[in-house]
Amino acid sequence: MKDKLKQISLKRMSSDEFPIYSKWSVKAYAEHLIKSGDERFMWKAKKEAKAEFKDVFPCGAESADNYLYIVVNENDEKIGVIGYQKSPFEENAAFVTENVIKEEYRGKGYGKSAFLKIQEDAREKGFSKMVLNTFKHTTVSYGMYERNGFKVIEDYGGSVIMEKIFDCTEEKL
Q1: N or C: which end of the chain has fewer CB within 10 A?
Q2: How far apart are CA 137 and CA 171, in angstroms?
Q3: pTM to 2 decimals?
Q4: CB 135 within 8 A of CB 36
Q5: Residue 59: left if φ>0, alpha if ψ -120 to 50, beta else—which one?
Q6: Was domain 9-165 assigned CATH 3.20.20.140?
Q7: Under DSSP, is residue 124 helix (H, G, I), strand (E, B) or coil?
Q8: Which residues contact residue 164 at a Cβ distance below 8 angstroms, ignoring those fewer than 6 apart?
């Protein structure tokens, strides 16, 4: 069954919401490092995840060139987090830093809707492409990225870097 687009909105994450998000995100990222085979020891994975998180968000929710959003559904419920930053690696590229929908809302089109919205947001901010890192074991996300025009540009075994060059003729939501 194809995902249907859902009515969602993106709300900028506040500095009050950020500590709860950061604690969860570091733990989840460390678990993905273990599952992917990129790391063998949880203590080391947590240390790596904390370091990467601090690098991406040195000033929390107010970090420069970061666009971190709470995904809100049609019933005004907070159902996920999605965001990107100006890529530190190349000019005019948006780098996805987070894309997660609460488990009970997955498979219903919310993730696809949120992901399409941040692509539109990035295009409106002048970015010409979007880049992301995803773990191969997250097959649902991986498949969604492929179906939405993302191509693998680097393969690290347990994870890949994917990119999509924005087409100026793409329809807006």
Answers
A1: N
A2: 30
A3: 0.85
A4: yes
A5: alpha
A6: no
A7: helix
A8: 119, 129, 130, 148, 149, 150, 151
In the chain, which ranges are continuous DSSP H helix?
18-36, 42-56, 110-124, 139-147
> What does DSSP say about strands 78-86 and 93-101: parallel, antiparallel, or unpaired?
antiparallel
Please state, in angstroms and rounded to a whole number, the distance separating the CA atoms of residues 162 and 113.
Answer: 19
CA atoms within 13 A on the CB side of 101: 21
Give yes or no for a contact between 80 and 105, defined as CB atoms under 8 angstroms apart: yes
List of residues 6+ apart from 76 with CB closer than 8 A: none
Domain edges within the chain:
9-165
Q: Which among 134, 141, 136 has a CA at the least distance from the CA of 162?
A: 134
Q: Hey, what amino acid is at 32?
A: H
Could you report the average pLDDT of every consecutive run of 10 residues in the chain (173 residues)? 76 94 87 77 84 91 94 95 94 94 90 94 96 89 92 92 84 53
Please give the single-letter amino acid code of residue 135.
F
Confirm if 152 and 130 have CB atoms less than 8 A apart. no
**Separation of alpha carbons 13 and 119, rounded Å:** 17
